Amino acid sequence: MDNEWVRQFASLGFLLPTDRYFSGSLNGELLSNVLAQNEWNGFTWGVPLDVDPYVIVYNVNALKRLGFTSPPTSGQGWAKLIDDFHKQEYIPYLLSYDYDNPYAALTLLWQLNTSNFEGNALLEVTEGLKGTFQKLEHLRPKVLDSKGALNDEIWKLSYDEKLLFYLTKASEANGRSNNVLGVFYPQQEGKQRSLWMHGRSFVVPTQSDNAKKAGEWITAMTSLEDQARWFQATSHLPVIKSQYMNKSLPTWVPSSIVNAKAGMLPVYAKLPQHMIQYGRITSEFMRNSMNAKEYNDLIAKLFAQ
What we know:
The chain is 39% helix and 15% strand. By secondary structure, it is of the alpha+beta class. The chain has 2 domains: 3-51 and 205-248, Periplasmic binding protein-like II (D-Maltodextrin-Binding Protein, domain 2, 3-Layer(aba) Sandwich); 53-195 and 269-302, D-Maltodextrin-Binding Protein, domain 2, CATH 3.40.190. The strands form 3 sheets. Strands 4, 5, 6, 7, 8 and 9 form a 6-stranded mixed β-sheet that branches. Strands 1-10 form a two-stranded antiparallel sheet. The chain has a two-stranded antiparallel ribbon with strand order 2-3. A hairpin with a 2-residue loop joins β2 (39-40) and β3. α6 packs across α12 and α11 (271-286) runs antiparallel to α12. The longest helix is centred in the C-terminal third of the chain and has 16 residues, at 271-286. The protein is globular. The chain starts with a helix and ends with a helix. The model has no long low-confidence stretch (mean pLDDT 88).
């Protein structure tokens, strides 16, 4: 089950606690921010399987033309890059992402915004965030909807220096890093939240006929050996901290992933519904169905609920 849904299903009584399925080798070894998504009411309701964070694929040479060696690591850095991008004419598109994917859209917003979001709210509409909405409004002609294009088309634009950045999941980007394209993990220093880390977990339904057998299978699938094999098979990153200390992962995967705190991602039962509504509003905004003020009003109303 996607981690975003675990707490809601647990609160509705559809899941059994999974605390007893954690083997001794997993205690203290799981990524804190991932495990936190599965905790509710004093229990753990899912055993993490993998993570698939959003990353930025970039054209190395095109980025160097703008005076950068890697994507920005702060909202201020993004502001400078965007300003420099508008002054040039040889790169048609700044960025591409799936307009209908709310988690990709949220990652982009967290990247561009200069302030830090804390607490358990997805967004807090501040003057700074309103400015980011206006920035996105002006950028819309330079942002491609990857869902509306063939996958090969996006990669061709990236290789041909027609597209500077492609915001996508790590599993899709893995294997693309070479002399032409780079892959960047966009965690920003000093920001609690700067990217969404998608993940999946094993859960046990309350109506399970053989919870004990399910637990044995979960334990086997989350062993150190199987975590390594799972990455090789799926390109989904592991959830066990020690895997980030060896040389088996791609060089673009930072060991600092293990330091992400539990509050990196907001967690609450209504999160999936909020994200569905956020995604619908944001996709309409990016497709020019409303202006920044109208978008701001809808977002403020949504997160005031």
